[in-house]
Structure formats: structure tokens, C-alpha cells
Write a structure and sequence with these properties.
- This protein has about 110 residues and is of the alpha+beta class.
- It has one domain: Orthogonal Bundle (Helix Hairpins).
- It has two helices and four strands.
- Helix 1 runs antiparallel to helix 2.
- The longest helix is centred in the first third of the chain and has 56 residues.
- It is elongated and about 85 Å long.
């Protein structure tokens, strides 16, 4: 009977080790990836809203608050709103017209949420 309880204890220790050494780190990594993806989706949704506002209001210039990182913002004036620069990934930025940017953002949001 002692061997059954010892083998059960050994099996339990193996399961605990597996959970702590393999599954828990994978869970942390997956949650971090999910959070990063959710943040990217949120940023592209904000960009889509801004592009829609530019299209509907037909503004020639724009004054806005620019996020410069770490929750710091600076006032910015955009003299020409016909072209926007979009981060397309891997730290590449492309200048597009507003309709081109709207198409890109819509496709990218579809890919992100697929």
C-alpha cells in the first residue's frame, strides 16, 4: 500500500513540475501576445476613426494631441491632411492618401481579428 501512495505522490510531483515549468510560462507568453495584439487592434481602430473624421469633415488642416510615448502628449498642427503616414509593421512607414490608408487599415484590422 505504501508503494501506491508513493507512486501517486511521485506522479503528482511530476504533474506539478510540468504545470510550473512548461504550462505556466507558455500561458504567460500567450497572455502577453494577446495583450499586444489587443493593443495593436485598439490603435488601428483609433486610426480608422481619425481617417473617417478626416474624410467626413474634409479638413484641410488639423490641430491635435500627438502621443509621443509613455503617456506624454504634445500639441501638433497638421497643415495638409491629404496624406498620412502609416506604420505598416516591422518599423516601416508608408505615406498614403486618406482613402488608401482607410483601405489598408480595414484590411489590416480584418487580418488582426481573423
Amino acid at each position: 500500500m505504501t508503494t501506491d501512495s508513493e507512486s501517486s505522490a511521485v506522479a503528482l510531483q511530476r504533474y506539478i513540475a510540468f504545470v510550473e515549468e512548461i504550462l505556466r510560462p507558455q500561458l504567460r507568453q500567450t497572455l502577453a501576445h494577446r495583450d499586444a495584439l489587443a493593443q495593436e487592434v485598439h490603435e488601428y481602430q483609433k486610426l480608422r476613426e481619425l481617417l473617417q473624421e478626416l474624410t467626413h469633415s474634409k479638413l484641410q488642416s488639423l490641430q491635435t494631441l500627438l502621443d509621443i510615448g509613455e503617456r506624454f502628449h504634445a500639441r501638433a498642427k497638421v497643415d495638409d491632411t491629404s496624406l498620412v503616414t502609416v506604420d505598416i509593421g516591422l518599423n516601416f512607414h508608408v505615406e498614403m492618401t486618406v482613402p488608401e490608408a482607410q483601405i489598408f487599415v480595414q484590411k489590416h484590422l480584418f487580418d488582426l481579428t481573423e
